[in-house]
Amino acid sequence: MKITELVLATANEHKAREIKQVLMGINILPRPSELGEIDEIGDSLEENALLKADAVKDYTKKAALADDTGLEIDALGGKPGVHSARFAHCLASDAENVAHVLKLMENQSNRQAKFVTVIALSIPDGDHIIAKGEVRGEIAFEETGSNGFGYDSIFIPIEGDGRTFGEMSSDEKNSISHRGRALRAFFDQLKDFD
Fold first, then answer.
1. What percent of the chain has pLDDT over 90?
2. Domain ranges of the chain
3. Do strands 64-73 and 5-8 pair parallel, antiparallel, or not at all (unpaired)?
4. CA 107 to CA 7: how far, in whole Å?
5. Helix (DSSP H) and strand (DSSP E) numbers for the chain
6. Catalytic site residue 43?
7. SS3 186
């Protein structure tokens, strides 16, 4: 079954834009506005991505794409990880999460971290495609840049030029980011999927 159309599980406009930039040639439908929140109760990024993709597929009866992303900081024992979106508290904003990380990292000399994204596609016949991408970097001492979202303003990728993701254009970020890598790996699998 060739996939030519899919529904996004995310309502995050930034993520949707990044996904559309990589998955050219596929008709990408927005998440149905009437679909309620999907509880991310998984113990891993993969479980959460699958939960969201399956929920949207079940609701729409169409192939559905979901992702889950975590920031894993070495000095914090891999936290926030699967809890990245709710690290400061259960209803935390991006700004609150960033402030919480910077506070916890105040006296840390080891600033190494990585971003990990898992992409899951749930297909009406019950099949799944799963892809993963990651990028290593370090946590900045302060926020820099207003592009992107989440922790982008404090994450400096090793493969970059010393700027945070928040200082990069979307094309620059997508070329080396965790989500860009996961999406390209997913797209490669999708091309071979019948």
1. 72
2. 5-191
3. parallel
4. 43
5. 5, 7
6. no
7. helix
- pLDDT band at 133, cuts 50/70/90? very high
Regarding predicted confidence, which is higher, 148 or 194?
Answer: 148
The more confidently predicted of residues 150 and 15 is 150
C-alpha to C-alpha distance for 140 and 118, rounded to whole angstroms: 24
- More confidently predicted of 193 and 94: 94
Q: For domain 5-191, is the CATH number 3.90.950.10?
A: yes
- 25, 15 Cβ separation under 8 angstroms: no
Tokens of 170: 């979307």
Q: Report residue 194's pLDDT band, with 50, 70 and 90 as the boundaries.
A: low
Q: Mutual orientation of helices 13-22 and 178-191 as an angle, nearest 10°?
A: 50
pTM value is 0.90
Task: Specify burial of residue 79 (Cβ count, 10 A radius: 0-12, 13-18, 19+).
Answer: middle
CA atoms within 13 A on the CB side of 189: 15
CB-based contacts of 17, cutoff 8 Å, min separation 6: 170
Say which of 58, 68, 94, 192 is annotated catalytic: 68
Buried b or exposed e, range 10-44, using 16+ CB within 10 angstroms? bebebbeebbeebbeebeebebeeeeeebebeeee
Per-residue confidence band for 41, with pLDDT thresholds at 50, 70 and 90: confident
